[in-house]
């Protein structure tokens, strides 16, 4: 092999450097009509280097044969390429390792130019060249990176288990090397630099750890695809920790990944972990810089794109915070409610006595394992965490503190996801805001104040529902109609509870109560009408997605109709008759479609009862009318 300081070797190294620059830098500037121009040029250079190494190998073999003839001994351990790659200190072994590096880069090049079979072939050749010596300081980084690429390749072909095999071996190889050696291994660039220009030990370590971080990241995706969500969450968390530790991250990308991970933790009711992810996401997102002003965005396309990206990502993180607050409140509600959905005061007292110490102990035990951040960000992350609890609220004041945090993020999210241009997202945020008020009302024991909270829900949803075009947004319209109907229904129940405490109802109270009943019926009926065919016919058989909502709507219309207050007997008769018709609809539908009974067991039982009782009440009113005339 030519000496590493020779002109010939320096030319090889320069060619390799140029190939890397073409592939990683110049390729980003390639025109749309020739997107792989620089990649192809890089490939040609890599092939030229490989030919140069092969030529040198042939020359040395001829020289060795001449040495044999003159009585010199040839090292039989370098008989094949796989053996040569282990002998990192020998010229032949080093040359074979270099060829393996070239095969790796050619494999990546072919994959990046969408020639997957050729890419796979080059990567497999690389693996064969170093197969017998994978944990040496010369080869371990190359081996891990080659397996990473093969893992990505097979995952892209939906061969997830095959990808899993490559990546898990890469992981075990890293762990084995760190246990047996642990010194910074050779980086792929080290094989093609003039003597004295090798990477520093610190840079070698950084690059090796980056390769392993990629292994963990790809494994997280694999486990997610295999629906091994707990393992996927663990690997994703470790990946994020390592990216911060080794400063190998793009702030916005890292922040979105951390915020996404928080949503997994929420599903597992791991709110401390979810909060830490979100706090870290918010802090790391600020490292992406200040949001350009509108004036700057108008003057520069680049600034406009940057402004758009920053606003969008920060709004997405805000939405994750909303989900955090909402789910924390909703899970606390499940813990505290009785069998009719009201606050169980005995349960509340019991939890207050035991819950706090228990949660504090759990938090201390788990906290150290999940921490993100370096010394310059850790304090900021902890400070943001302290602004919202991660334990279940047990009374109104605790719930309100969480609600207010969620509401502040609603305001942030709506700034970007405005109705103009982001209709679906904007309405989803409004629905979450409404849900925050709904769950907060659960903790409020004053019935009038609870009613006002539901009124806030109506005020935010009703204008949207009226203006939205049902032709384009049918599903959203149905959701809003049903939620508005339910909200008015809850307000009616609250007003009914208040009225039952009074000796006599005044005209204003009766009018208000009837208005709530009518409004709820109106929106339930709008929902039911949306299910009709274009000709106005109600379906004989309901689709699964609307089966329960439709039957519940008819059941509640029946109840609301019977609750309307009137001193006028004919009006009472009309209301009860209409109520009976709706109860009969529910019963008859379930008789004709027995499989639907499970969806509305409680409502069906009550409907059957009312179908037998209401005719008696109707008859009594009819008798009074006859008598009065």
From TrEMBL:
Main location: cytoplasm
Organism superkingdom: Eukaryota
Keywords, alphabetical: Cytoplasm, Cytoskeleton
GO cellular component, one term: cytoskeleton
Alphabetical list of InterPro entries matching this protein: KBP (IPR022083), TPR-like_helical_dom_sf (IPR011990)
One matching Pfam family: KBP_C
Gene Ontology biological-process entries: central nervous system projection neuron axonogenesis; microtubule cytoskeleton organization; neuron projection maintenance
Subcellular location(s) of the protein: Cytoplasm, Cytoskeleton
Protein's job: Activator of KIF1B plus-end-directed microtubule motor activity. Required for organization of axonal microtubules, and axonal outgrowth and maintenance during peripheral and central nervous system development.
Family in the record: Belongs to the KIF-binding protein family.
Record's protein name: KIF-binding protein
